[in-house]
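Onboarding guide, step 5: your first structure request.
Type a short instruction followed by the sequence, for example:

Predict the 3D structure of this protein.
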Amino acid sequence: RITVRCCGHSAPIKLNTTGRSALSLAVELLDNMGENPEWEMEAALLRDLIDLFKKQSPCTRTDKMHINESVVDRWAWMLKDTIHHDITLSTADGARTAHSAILMQASPVLKAAFSSDMIEGRSKSVEITDVLPAAVSLFLELVYTGSTSADVSTDVAVDTLRLAHRWQVHDVVAMMENCAASLLSPATFIDIASVAQLLALP
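The system replies with structure tokens like these:
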């Protein structure tokens, strides 16, 4: 545990540091300081620190990769050109489709399911009822292109992270960890910290 004391009369803030990242501690500490003017200087420094973390982990298309833009566009086109798709992901608002070769290469879980005699293997489809449809779309976009041009909300980011973790798509998990870090704020801390704890993320 650590104890942070104020030069004024405010009560010290105590935080449990076990298994915690610097970013999560900074966000919780800032939340505990609230609007108390006695913590004004410390709060300003924490806000600068959190902004620095965000700059290091953007959740935008600019975090793509150092390759020719046309390569990413080609894979984005393959995702949009559904005529050759042979796998269906059924969501609450309709189906998303993809290439089985892509998903089976990305996910050992899906490879096992689609190669088996289970319902998924026979029907070449997966029912996804506990994840936002937008998260399924983002998951596919990241599998195919490793990037997104969309503005990602916290709930979509959390669900995408959960789906990638469930299907053991480790590169997408890593991308969504960075994305979730960039979305951290006092308002989103509980949602993001809860899923990180649930999935045993660092």
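Each response can be followed by summary notes, for example: The radius of gyration is 20 Å.
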